[in-house]
Amino acid sequence: MAKRSAQGLPILNLENMSKRILIIFTLLLAVSVVAVWGVYQKYFTQEKVSPKVGNVLESIYGLGTVSADELFNMRIGVATNIGDLYVKEGDQVTRNTALIKIDGHIMRAPIDGTVTRIAYKKGELVAQQVPIVTLVNLKLLYLEVNLEQQSVLRIKEGQKAYVSFETLRNEKYTGQVKTVYPRESQFIVRIELEKWPEGILPGMTADVAIAIGHKKDVLLIPINSINSGQVTRLRNGRKEKLAVKLGAIDGEMAEVTSENISETDELIIRKK
Question: Where are the beta strands (DSSP E) in 141-244?
């Protein structure tokens, strides 16, 4: 029962009123945050794009590994000690540069290149047929791409290849398929670039797209509108998630072969 004053009027409990006001304010604030977040998600984290008819470059994609055409491993036929070393790892040498002395004989470089490995130190005993010094010509490089049988059947000598290195994503380099050959149970495509970026070394990898043909007047949608094989389609004000079938894929665009997407539709893309 509420307390009353000497005049018979009820006495207000300010503490309880403050708690009620705080609770009401907290609820209103929570509702406002949810509403603002919903508006933000709807209008600021999404954008609409329309499919378009255009041309697409059909490509086969793979991961390429940089290799060197000229590599030399110096070995000896009998075990002996190293008399002297004239180079160190990282040195650039030219043909006939002195490398090591063994049994009074100076062994010289047969190629221009960079010393990438010295396995022994002066005076150490060298086992037979074990590489002592390794030279690599870092100026004669190519890419090896390992493809599955289904893909490699569509690769031919002379096809263009477009290459991007992980640390140089904003730059594209053009190359050409030179040969296709088997290696044990693998199928290798050799690609040579018209120009190599500075600093690329054997063992580095690159994304490779080998152009195998062009398709004209096909329906295209952005790659970033596809999520796990589905798109969010907006048609006549209705939003719906649909599975789509894709054909050729060219960088940022993909061909749609299924009939559930038309040029008049809009697709919802979530902004990053």
Answer: 141-147, 160-165, 173-183, 186-193, 205-222, 230-235, 238-243
